[in-house]
């Protein structure tokens, strides 16, 4: 590699949409002459693409930016949700930052870098163009993120996303089809459709939610697997589930955040459904997709939550029997309606409830995973495991993570694996036949 080539390090925090955007950033910078660098201390350009959904994400970024000794003369750019929300504040707090950009103007980053002349640049304007239309440098050659809509109109009281991602905007089905066709031509085997609320896709351009129409269209494509995330319970319909059940390439995995089990707390959150309605949705999923895995997000310690409210959360977990849950303690976000509520739940109570919730869900996850023991599952092989280079990792159609001994040459291919052992967070198998 020539010493004259510019090196870029990209660090990503947060959700799948951020990973999607970070791949576009890497693709853009590659197009103007940068090569990827895994060691931030050797990079000529360090890009941090941030998250601000929870305080922990803020602190992780602040800690890394403060502690890393960057290469002398290097450029530091910060983008994403935290930059969109607190761009000017970041420049004042960290004098080392050269460029601040937002969530919807990624394509301007090379221009901002070229415009630097000793003064920092902060620009977080919203552009109409979807980030998906930009070049990408994908982490996995056989998998791709495809954004179908962006933004959110739900305005849950605790959530900063509508502020930093804007209102819901959908891409035309034809535009998404074109991207999928190109990915198939590039030998991509699996796509994950992304949106802050994919179920409401199309309501802004087709006058009604049209996600089932999009899924049915993609069901006729030559792509092997289609996943999607994230779904809002209020917009999950029979039509969507029926479409999944009728198309062979649709993955039987539904991520359906419920956040809290108490109707009183759900009203304060502005979630637009109740406990009974959520459990009915779970039954509906099981009816259409008996073998589907269901995962969720659960929040503990929302302001005013008491023990009875928390027991309602545990009751949903016990009844729904999720395959996996992403659990977290409520984090106050300035600028959200919930920030004005008195956070009257003691931290000790939050932590104790959190531990009980995790313990219950881990127990259920293990029981659900044990149901797979003895089965032969088709995996799309993703990578060599970090702990044992003789082991590979792959995902089932239902998004179960499976580790097995195999040849690295199978990465990006489908293999059949017999499940031999279950753990709470993954399965262990061996090549079958």
From TrEMBL:
Its cofactor is [4Fe-4S] cluster. Residues 6-118 form the MTTase N-terminal domain. GO terms for cellular component: cytosol. Keywords: 4Fe-4S, Iron, Iron-sulfur, Metal-binding, S-adenosyl-L-methionine. Residues 370-433 form the TRAM domain. GO terms for molecular function: 4 iron, 4 sulfur cluster binding; metal ion binding; tRNA-2-methylthio-N(6)-dimethylallyladenosine(37) synthase activity. InterPro entries: Elp3/MiaA/NifB-like_rSAM, Methylthiotransferase, Methylthiotransferase_CS, Methylthiotransferase_N, Methylthiotransferase_N_sf, MiaB_methiolase, rSAM, rSAM_horseshoe. Residues 138-367 form the Radical SAM core domain. Pfam families: Radical_SAM (PF04055), TRAM (PF01938), UPF0004 (PF00919). NCBIfam families: miaB-methiolase, MiaB/RimO family radical SAM methylthiotransferase. HAMAP family: tRNA_metthiotr_MiaB. This is TRAM domain-containing protein. The lineage of its organism: unclassified sequences, metagenomes, ecological metagenomes.
